[in-house]
């Protein structure tokens, strides 16, 4: 059996936006992924469903999987023929023990590659308005681990660090904050030297405290900063308030849960993150295209004037169903296309089709009313949508005497790999807004969470039908002004 390759990937300090393109490509093509605690859910969502996942998450003073065992896991997966990604927070070679893992792989004849990552030592200060070098303040930056092995003293040469007159960045040092500050003071650093602690750097939940080396521990305790956090010491910290571009973002500090299906959350999540939100993608439904296309094949023997589509997923399902039937979009030549909303129309455009009809309000009832106004006597409508779709569209067309066929091309399954994450968020009261783009996402969310209080967050719904589903479970509902992603983002801004 051919030995698989191990690729060490630095995941960066936070979300997907700071993951390198090469790192993302390696994750997407992996057959197995071994990952640490600090890798964000946003990045873990890139792992293929078919890939083996191994969580070796290590916490301070708690290592559920020892390093020796991690090394053995990597070798085992590679010798099983699997191309494996070793996914680490930050950069693999900066206090990440990546060098040790590469040495072990080499000893065991396993090929490897290293994809560097953005280190929190540089990124977190940058997001906190602290340039680690500046011509007016310092000419060098030094990165030090403040993590000591259990029962041992910090092995830091504070005297040498103080003589450098440089920016000092201490990683993994929150529990040793007082010892670090005392060490610097004993070594002769000026008592008024600026210093900062940054919690959850680069993430939407980032917090910081800026003080001096004397008062920093007291102020950090008062605020209650927690790990993961790093310490910055140096005159550049005085620029923090002036150059802070991240925390003034309008959604900074707000946690938004996106429940759209995997692969459909991107645009909404990206727009929210761009405004500083802490976005947690927790898909609660999955669209599964139907293998049996006999109903569609039979319908294609008849003449149709209109094709009605009720979701972007339905557009893809239509194209793929035609392919399984041995046909393509030419089978619908001469038909006009009706789209339920802008998202569906946009997906149609990806296949070179311009929507001929779209209601102003994006739901099934308004789509039906628009068709009633547009369809000419004798014309027939082919509806391609999910199994057990909302009843309004066929009911209104039937009452109007319009001939139609309602053909399922996919089904919606209530499935969530992030059910534990959702329950933890709700229990801790950390979810500010949960977004719902269909009644099925509401149902999937409720099934994933189970019995829980839904009073602690705002249920932001894309339309009336979705809102009705949320209200049924006692959620505090807010409806986007329009059934668009931009309108949902605007509604979050109003919260």
Features:
495 residues, alpha/beta, Cobalt-precorrin-4 Transmethylase, domain 1, Methyltransferase, Cobalt-precorrin-4 Transmethylase, Domain 2, Rossmann fold, five-stranded parallel β-sheet, 20 strands, 20% strand
Number of domains: 4
Strand content: 15-25%
* Count of individual beta strands: 20
The CATH class of the largest domain turns out to be Alpha Beta
Give the helix/strand class: alpha/beta
Q: Spans with pLDDT under 50 lasting ≥5 residues?
A: none
Radius of gyration: 27 Å
CATH topology of the largest domain: Rossmann fold
Overall CATH architecture of the largest domain: 3-Layer(aba) Sandwich
Q: What topology, given as strand order, has the largest sheet? A: 3-2-4-1-5
**Helix count from the secondary structure assignment:** 19
The level of helicity is 25-40%
What is the mean predicted local confidence, pLDDT? 92
- Main sheet overview: 5 strands, parallel
Dominant shape = elongated
Distance between the termini: 56 Å
């Amino acid at each position: 059996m051919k030995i698989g390759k191990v690729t060490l990937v630095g995941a960066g300090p936070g979300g997907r936006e700071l993951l390198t393109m090469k790192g993302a490509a390696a994750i997407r093509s992996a057959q197995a992924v071994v990952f640490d605690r600090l890798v964000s859910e946003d990045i873990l969502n890139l792992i293929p469903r078919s890939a083996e996942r191994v969580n070796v998450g290590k916490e301070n003073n708690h290592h559920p999987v020892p390093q020796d065992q991690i090394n053995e896991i990597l070798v085992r997966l590679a010798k099983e023929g699997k191309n494996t990604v070793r996914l680490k927070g930050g950069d693999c070679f900066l206090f990440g023990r990546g060098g040790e893992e590469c040495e072990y792989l080499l000893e065991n004849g396993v090929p490897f590659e290293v994809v560097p990552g953005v280190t929190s030592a540089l990124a977190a200060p940058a997001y906190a308005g602290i340039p680690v070098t500046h011509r007016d303040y310092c000419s060098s930056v030094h990165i030090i681990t403040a993590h000591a092995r259990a029962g041992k003293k910090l092995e830091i040469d504070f005297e040498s660090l103080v003589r450098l007159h440089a920016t000092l960045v201490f990683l993994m040092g929150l529990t040793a904050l007082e010892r670090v500050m005392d060490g610097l003071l004993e070594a002769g650093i000026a008592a008024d030297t600026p210093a900062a602690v940054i919690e959850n750097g680069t993430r939407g939940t980032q917090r910081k405290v800026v003080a001096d080396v004397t008062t920093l521990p007291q102020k950090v305790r008062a605020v209650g900063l927690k790990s993961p956090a790093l310490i910055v010491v140096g005159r550049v910290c005085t620029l923090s308030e002036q150059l802070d571009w991240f925390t003034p973002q309008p959604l900074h500090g707000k946690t938004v849960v996106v429940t759209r299906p995997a692969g459909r959350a991107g645009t909404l999540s990206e727009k929210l993150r761009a405004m500083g939100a802490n976005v947690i993608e927790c898909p609660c439904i999955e669209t599964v295209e139907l293998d049996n296309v006999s109903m569609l094949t039979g319908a294609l023997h008849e003449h149709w004037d209109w094709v009605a589509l009720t979701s972007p997923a339905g557009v893809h399902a239509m194209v793929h169903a035609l392919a399984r039937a041995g046909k393509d979009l030419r089978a619908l030549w001469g038909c006009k296309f009706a789209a339920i909303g802008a998202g569906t129309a946009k997906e149609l455009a990806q296949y070179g089709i311009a929507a001929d009809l779209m209601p102003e309000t994006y739901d099934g009832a308004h789509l039906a009313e628009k068709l009633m106004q547009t369809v000419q006597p004798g014309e027939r409508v082919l509806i391609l949508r999910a199994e057990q779709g909302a009843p309004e569209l066929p009911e209104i067309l039937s009452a109007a005497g319009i001939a139609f066929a309602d053909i399922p091309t996919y089904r919606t399954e209530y499935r969530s790999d992030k059910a534990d994450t959702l329950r933890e968020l709700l229990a801790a009261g950390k979810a500010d807004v949960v977004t719902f783009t269909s009644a099925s996402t509401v149902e999937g969310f409720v099934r994933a969470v189970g019995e829980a209080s839904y009073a602690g967050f705002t249920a932001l719904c894309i339309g009336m039908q979705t809102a009705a589903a949320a209200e049924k479970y006692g959620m505090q509902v807010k409806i986007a002004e329009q059934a668009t992603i931009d309108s949902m983002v605007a509604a979050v801004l109003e919260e």
